[in-house]
# Entry
Amino acid sequence: MFLALDIGNTNITVGLFDMKKKKVLSNPLKVWRMSTVKERTSDEYAAILLNTFFYSGYDAKKIGNVAVASVVSSLNVVFEDLVKKYFNKKVFFVNHKNCGGLVFAVGNPEEVGADRIADVVAAYSTYGGDCIVIDFGTATTFDCIDSKGRYMGGSIAPGPAISAQSLSLKTAQLPQVEIKKPSKVIGTTTVECIQAGLYFGYIGFVKELILRIKKEIKVKHIIATGGLARLMSNEISAIEIILPNLTLEGIRIVWEKHNGRLLR
# Structure
């Protein structure tokens, strides 16, 4: 089996893929999520992973390869140690050098997050380019790849959860709220008012960036991924595709390309 890890600032998404004749099959068998805690040791993360495998009915000893896309650099050595100690493997890290042949049309490729690289590689492999990938995570990222497979750059903004947290931390009387779609834009309680502002305000923000990106490049497909993708995309008709596991698929594809066994 093949293990893909997407290490984000809020959550770590774990994807377990099946293998056939030494090739990794698309679509993960199972996806898990655990909180990102920078202070955890490799042994603590291993305990969570191994218990998850066990109670889900999978044998961790059958893991043949492990690939990681991480935006939390302090955890790279933690998972490198984990993979070596518990799987007896060397971990593969997605980065601007190990990117499956992605061409960068940006000034500083080393600044592009591994998750963003995985997203556009998966989008191009599936849809052939001219894509916008919107990843609704801790940050909301917009990434663009053209028909020639060139990564054109994009935009980054705080995600809704960060905005909600900032309101709670920086204002004395405003509470932390759940990110959800309210029934109306005019709230009658403080919580409803915050939820309306966050949700509908964010919808407007995303629509505006899509319109402006379309003025700069050719766009055929707009793809949403990330934890809040379904919630936010329901109000945005321009988003035609929702792929929750896009980043994991991108990690798989990058690893396959790097190892010379691309399935597609």
Notes: The chain has seven helices and 13 strands. The radius of gyration is 19 Å.
